[in-house]
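> example.struct
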């Protein structure tokens, strides 16, 4: 089977299946030989920062000589992005071969087990990741939850070596709950008996819930507090900061990003790696760790895709707040152009209000992304009009909107934010533009 056939099949899955009980996925994994038990698992949940923390952990472990597998979501352009072996996206042929193995197991179970249901899109992908990581003989599989934690497909893993809970904020409230405490309890559902928990300690309400659940499972908790790390240089290329984990003082950590929030995410990953190494009685090469962090790149998170053009996947209120924290640092010296879009499930009114109050953009261009979940560009532009008298233009077509934004950018900075769909579309257009220039088209 070709990759395109496998991807097309998976995109059809939501049309004929719904959320299943965890036992359904456990049955599928057992039929596949329980591949998820053939490598050490680091399980990561949270509202924002999960992918970045996973990427930093992956970079740290590879720098220590460990063989790693990384399973994240969503993808920006191709499904292969969700699976990484040793820092590289899985090849299309390997994606297809893992898909076939899962498909054969699913078909056999559908014939033999009357209570077995077709896996959901995410369950299928997780089963593929487990097969891939087992076949590739990774030492560590780093798993990012898809949504929540307690009922997430990845939570069928019974014995992770470490759990990490990143920042928690109000998102997917219709599913996870309408308070920080309720959402934190869902995320804390990944905590297992005696397994160390590294978490964001800056939100007291979330931290208390995590500690409560951890006590019930006799799991030690290691929170990262605001005073434990300090940024002392933030340019448009790198962040230099210090971190005191309580066990070791790092004075010279460098992250290759302009986003201040990546200092926090990298700090969480460093703490997680330290706890993992102490727990498993391994010796840490701290210089290699620092190099692993410096080399880490995570697509779609304040990523410079063209000179002075940045995409940021912040797609909820907390994500936009983090985005504005970074962007506003540069507006004193550089003119800022904004390209924005959002989907209807998000509180885009509050997101737009935050942007208008904090970023003195020269021009905002609003566009439409997200298929059935999209909000018309004209409607988004109207919301901008409530909060700013600066120039706001709208264009329903993303490619045309990007061309317009580039024309308005001039010698300033262009930030594309508000949706992962937008980040993916702009990244695709930038890569396409780069290929065309290479080919002289």
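> example.seq
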């Amino acid at each position: 089977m070709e990759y395109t056939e496998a991807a097309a099949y998976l995109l059809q899955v939501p049309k004929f299946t719904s959320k299943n009980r965890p036992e359904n996925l456990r049955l599928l994994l057992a039929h596949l030989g329980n591949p998820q038990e053939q490598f050490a698992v680091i399980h990561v949940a949270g509202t924002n920062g999960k992918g970045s923390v996973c990427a930093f952990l992956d970079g740290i472990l590879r720098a220590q000589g460990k063989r790693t597998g990384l399973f994240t979501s969503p993808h920006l352009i191709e499904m292969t992005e969700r699976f990484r072996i040793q820092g590289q996206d899985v090849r299309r042929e390997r994606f297809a071969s893992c898909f076939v193995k899962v498909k054969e197991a699913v078909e056999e179970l559908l014939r033999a087990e009357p209570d077995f249901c077709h896996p959901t899109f995410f369950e299928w992908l997780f089963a593929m990741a487990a097969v891939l990581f087992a076949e590739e003989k990774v030492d560590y599989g780093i798993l990012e939850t898809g949504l929540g934690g307690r009922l997430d497909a990845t939570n069928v893993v019974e014995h992770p070596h470490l759990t990490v809970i990143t920042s928690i904020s109000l998102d997917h409230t219709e599913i996870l709950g309408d308070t920080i405490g309720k959402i934190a309890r869902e995320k804390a559902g990944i905590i297992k008996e005696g397994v160390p928990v590294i978490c964001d300690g800056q939100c007291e309400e979330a931290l208390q819930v995590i500690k409560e659940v951890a006590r019930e499972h006799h799991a030690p908790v290691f929170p990262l507090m605001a005073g434990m790390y300090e940024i002392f240089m933030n340019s448009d290329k790198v962040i230099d900061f210090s971190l005191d984990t309580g066990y070791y003082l790092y004075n010279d950590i460098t992250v290759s990003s302009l986003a201040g929030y990546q200092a926090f995410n990298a700090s969480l990953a460093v703490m997680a790696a330290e706890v993992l190494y102490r727990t498993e009685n391994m010796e840490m090469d701290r210089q290699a760790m620092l190099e692993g962090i410096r080399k880490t790149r995570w697509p779609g998170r304040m990523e410079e895709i063209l000179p002075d053009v940045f995409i940021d996947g912040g797609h909820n209120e907390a994500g936009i707040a983090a985005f504005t924290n970074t962007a506003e640092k540069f507006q004193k010296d550089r003119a800022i152009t904004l390209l924005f879009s959002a989907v209807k499930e998000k509180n885009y009114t509050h997101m737009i209000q935050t942007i208008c109050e904090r970023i003195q953009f020269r021009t905002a261009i609003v566009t439409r992304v997200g298929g059935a979940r999209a909000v018309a560009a004209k409607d988004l532009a109207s919301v901008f009009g409530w909060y700013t008298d600066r120039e706001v233009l709208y264009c329903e077509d993303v490619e045309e909107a990007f061309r317009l934004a580039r024309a308005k950018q001039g010698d300033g900075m262009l930030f594309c934010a508000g949706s992962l769909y937008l980040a993916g579309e702009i990244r695709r257009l930038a890569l396409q533009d780069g290929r065309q220039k290479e080919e002289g088209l």
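> remarks
The chain has a mean pLDDT of 92.
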